[in-house]
Structure formats: structure tokens, C-alpha cells
Design goal:
The protein is an alpha+beta fold. The radius of gyration is 30 Å and the shape is globular. This is Orf(+21).
Length: about 800
Amino acid sequence: MRRTPRRIALLALPALVAGVVGTGPAGADPTTSTATAGPGRSQLEAQEQVRLVQLRLAGADMLDKVVAAGFDLEHGLKRVPTGIEGEAVVTAAQLTELKALGVEILDDGAGFEWSEEADGGLQGAAARTVAPASHTATVRIARADWFTTKGQGFLYVEARTTEGQQADPIVGMQVENDSGKGTSFGYARTMSRFVDSGQYMFHRNLFKLDKRPDQIRVTSSTGGVTTGPVSDWLENAPPPLTANPSYKWNFVDGYRHPQQLYSRANEIARQYPQIAEIVYLPNKTNGYQRKAQATIGGTGQEAVVVSSAAWGHEGGNDVTVEFVERPGANLPLAVEVAGKAVRVLLAKDASGALASTAAQVAEGLKTRSQGLVDRAHPYRTNAGTGIVRPTPGPVALTDFLDQKRVGAPEGEVPRGPATIPVLRIGKHRDGRKPGVLIQAQDHAREWVPATTSLEAAERLVHNYGSDKETKRIVDNTDVFFILSNNPDGANYSFYNYASQRKNLTNHCPDASADPAQRNSWGVDLNRNYRVGSGHDGYAGGSTVCTSGTYQGPEKLSEPESKNIIWLVEKYRNIKFMMSVHSNGGQLFWQPGAYIADGRITTPRPPLGDEAFYWQSAARILSQVKAHRETVVTPENVGGSSDVLYSSAGNVREDLYHTYGIYAYGWEVGGSVYNPATGNWQGGSFQPDWVGNPALVSGHAETLEYANGIMEMFRVAADWGQDRKKPTSQLVPGGGKSSGPVDVRFETSEPATIYYTTDGSRPTLESPRYAATEFREPGQVFHVTETTTFNWFSVDSAGNIEKNYDPTKNDKRNNYRTATITIGKK
């Protein structure tokens, strides 16, 4: 069976961005853009024509190499049995380079199909007689989730075999399901094997079904077999706040650039001073500004790249450079400056021939231009040995920021460094209530996260006086909104280059500093943090300054990332964080990065924290689904290095491991099931605002994911008010047995269990009850001799079972205990 064609991640393709308050920018198609360099300027400085291609990479190692080489791959990557498939925006030259790296080009943008063929056949294993699963079973079911969307049912299965790492022969797995309680197994399907960075992860698949099954059976080609129940995913969710007829919502009517976002944040603080204020972040950004530049003399050894000392808008755009040939012989190279006009008088040899090399001219400009020129160098990696020719006349330097899109008024974008405001909403903004940080638009081209976050802020202030649940949120949380954490890059995305991902800080050396590469400068802010950093050998951050995932010259090199650390250190009540991105429809947490050799991840959260993340995710995503039945599937939820790929130096990792903040990452704008075609339709970074309200639409995504942010506030409010102590038990419990016994711990809510088996008191230094494997439930202890378990549990809010104090050795010893006696009955 073949899966119907599915688009993974579409780029911005709006004809016009409509509905923006004030005069807004018009959209552009970055896949066909052929913007010129301006009147009289070299086409070398024009934005190169790019197009969208679909490609297949052999695996995570190749993905790392491609990203490190500077390619900007889409978020919508898809794991398939033969590697990773996805999309990239490339020039013709980059397409050739991708092929040289071994990347398989599937097509040039037309649809293609995902194969459901697994990489190991069962060859009749379904008919084999197998024994029931036991503690020695080679097959385990991690997830079996049922959900419905747009009138269609789906079953998602993850299963793992202990023999999955072996490659010859590759272990295959098959799943069967019943048709409801009491029915027999059938409908056998082969599952796909998921290998990441050379390591076996699990087998998994998403299947379309007409009826909800009650049980599944998974069989390995090596003989292992197990059965398990099917759970509901996002089914029977409570109605969202918007279901209340008097509830006010749907405030945002179009995309917003940073100035509009910040202006509205300030207006909210002025309109609702009793519950809102502005906190200004201390580190100013680079600014929507660039040095003025020109590439003079082509691309050969005679070419010179010139950059102004002043920012373009502060005088750099007024500088001209002219290369002049004088009559005569034996003339030295000289530089004349008159106002902002620089004339390089080219040298001549004894025969009267021109004798100045590009390297000599560049040095003369740097040292003798009276401070007008900051950088001058040969083109890219050239040595500059070619003889420079005179120019037809003065060449004007420009910062290339004067090419506004249609509808953008002159002077609307401030050019200097920007101060980022934080909109703080809460009745009690004194540190008593749990803080929630919503950070949007780390990546400039992601426009929906900003409107989603603004919509959530508007709902809080407009409903505070009339809606009981909103009042509870505002009275019991302290919310910090960063509506755009990358204003410089976002402005560049709105007004110059729609696909801009990074900020505008240019750390590139001379070899990458010519203006034809201006759309590739900047730092990926979500690779610039300290934990699991690319600087420490973790995969997913690039050292190439033109890469889409360039991590910066050092950790926290960028003002935008420094600001986040400042904020969480100043406001220590921040206990929750959501970094809102697009697109892809994932909700994830730690671990977010790994060292590729051996796939060594950053520390995984304890089982209790992992369970709390999953519980919160189900609540958040249920509210997303409630708007128009958009389902973020279980395969897209979990540790981001398991769900997507390794992203070294991401903000979530730093905030969780350094400050204990429950930090989530969200890729809004996921695939939506289209019942008319029977396939899943992907989103984009800048979908048409109106679009198809049932499928891809910036407006619909804004509303549904704002539902999810509101639910996150409720999660935080509940967490802050949680005084209930968890309970736990050993299952099946203590007692006598004539032979070995399998036992496990269960808790009444997400909680971390600390335990001992040597008779000692359990403390916070004792072993923690762990998962059998990542994305699986708690481990099973195979007890073969008499053993006493002593333990206690701690929930996510810090409540300890039975008021036990693990820090004190008092006589009460009110921890839990159970003894399993192994011997003849």
C-alpha cells in the first residue's frame, strides 16, 4: 500500500499579506524571487533565484553535514525507513552542491509519496505460534493511540524490539489490531524501522482505520510477540474557553511586524494597568541596519568587496568608490577623499600598464579612506592577485535595506538597535505566583507564532473582568509575553527576504561578507544557548556563519539570547516556558540535542517530569483540537531530539537544566487531515491569512494554537495551587512468592519516585525510578530473591507523599515500604 502524497512543509507563498493594522508589508514568494540589486548596480549583488526542492538524506549524520555546509532545511522533516525526507530552498548552484554531498533530489516541488514499506520483512511471521510476553520478551509496545480528526479515525503505534539495533538481518515488525473488545486480531501491517544517527530507536507507523480497536498485537521477525491495549489520544477533551458565548476572542486580523506587536503590547499595558505592565529587556539588538557595500570588478582575482565604516542609514549609503586610471607611467597607488567620495588612483608600471592588484586596492581603501571604509577585501576566497580595472564612474555603496516591498511606507522600520519589550500580565506581579514565559519568533520567517501569542494576550486582558476562568488564570499566574524575540530578522523577513531565519548580527569573515550573501548572515538564536551546545560537540548547530543553524561565535553571543537568561534570572518565579515556532505541528521538550557519535543525548528528564510533560501536552493539544479538529499526533510529541532532530544549544535545554523551568518547544501549524483527498496537508511559515479555514490558514492556526497557550496558563495555575500529595504503590505489591516476581511502581499523578532496595532510608540522592526506555513507561523489576523496597514520591509541584522529609533522619520514617519474600510457600 502506498500513502497518498503529502506535503511536508511549504514556504511562504502569499500573494499579498492582508489585514495588517496600519500599512503592512506585501508578501513575496521566496521560491521565485528575482529581486535586482538596484539601478546601475552589479547583478552579483542581487538576491539569487531560489526554488523549493524535495530531497532525501541517508540519515541524521548526513543531515548534520548538510546543515553544517550552510543549507537551510525546512522544519517539516519526515523520518522514513530509508532516511530523512523533507524540503529545502536552494539556488541552482546549491542544488549541485547538495548532489555532491550525496543528497538524493526527489523532485523539484511536485508531489511525492511516502513509502510505507518497512526495512525488514516478516516472511510469514504472523502465522507463527508464539508464547505470551514476559519479562524476557524481546518486543515492547511503547504507545498505541487512537484519535479521530475530520471524521476519520487513526491508530498510531510505537513498538521496540531489544534486537532492533542488529542490521543483518534487519529485524522487521508487524502490527495487528482487533475491531473492538472481544474481537480477534487481524489487519496485519508491516511497521517502519526508525534509526537515528546510526542508533535504532523503535518501529512506528500511523494507520487509517474505520473503527477504534481495543487491543493490538506486535510481532517481531525474530519471534518476539506482545499485546497491549489501545489508549485514546486527545479524545473527549473538555470544551475550550471559547465555547462560552460571552467569551471574547478572535482579536488578531492579520500578520504583525515587530513595531505593530510592540506598539500593541504598550497599549495593553496602558489600557489595563491593574493587570499589565511592560518590562524592557536590557540588551539591545543589532538593529535593522547594515553597513553599505559594493562588489566591484566581478568575481575574479581582480574583484574587490567594499564595506562602509558607518551604518548605511548613518552615512554609509552616501559613500561612493571609484577606481581611476591616470595617464603616465611609474605611478603609485593613491587614494583621494572628497566628502563621501573615495577615488582610488590605480598604480602603473614603467610601461604605463595598470599595476594595482585587488589585494593592494583593498588595503589602500582600508588604510587611506579617512575612515569611510571599514572592510575591503578580495572577493570571497580569492587571493586578490588580479589587476584592478577602472570603473566607468563612482560606485555607490548601499545597505540594501532601501528595497521595501509594496505597501511599506518609507521610514516605518527604525534602523538602530531595538529594545525588546516584554508584556507582563498578572494580578500579582510580585513573584508570588508561578511565572509563564511565552517567547515567539526566535526565527524571523515564522509569522504565525507572533499572532498566536498576541491573540492569547488579548484574550487575557479582555476577558479578565467577565470570565471566571480567565480571572483565575490572571489572579494565579504571572505571564511574560515576548511577542517577537527577533525584531531585526522579522523586519528583514517582512520587508526584504521572506525566508530570513536568523537575526541580523553579521559575524561572517571576509570570505562570506560580500552583499550577494546578505540573506545568509546572522545567528540562529535557538542554537546560541549554553546546555547541549554545538560548541561542546552536540549536533544540530553549525559553525558556518552562512548556515541556517549558525550557532554564533560563542555561547550567548547574541543580545536576544542574553535577554532570556536575564529575564529568568531576575524573575525566579518563572516556572514554565513555551518557545513558539512554526511550522510542523510538534510539541516537545528535553532532550533536545545529542552528540552524533553514539547518539549521546543531554540528560533525559526524570520519569515524573516526563509524565508531567505528557500530561500537560495532552491538555494543551486537546484545546488545539477543539477549534477545528487539528490533531498534533503522538509521533510529534516528546523529546525534540526524538521527535525532530538534534538542535544543539536550544533555549529549552538551558532553561530546564539550569533553572528547573518546564520548558516546551512548539512548532505550530501542523499538518491537517483533508477528508476530501484523504491525505495530510502541511502548513508553511507564512500561510495565506485567510486561506482555507478548514486546512491551511494563518488565521485558523492563530486561533487554535492560542487555545493551546491558554490551556498552558491553566496548567501553570493548577500547578501553583497544587497542595495535594501524591500516592504511590508497588504493583503487585509485597508478599510471599515461590518464584521470581515482576513488580513496578505506579503513582496517582505524575511524580518522581526515589527508592532503595538495601534496607536504607530513601533520600533525594537515592536511585530514581526510571523508564524502561525513552518514550516508555516505568521499568519492571525482576525480583529473584527476598527484597525490601523503601520509597517515596514527589510530584511536579514539589509535594511529597505522606509529608515525608527525605532530608531528615527522624524516627517516623514515614516512607512507603514493601517486602517481597521469595521462597517456598
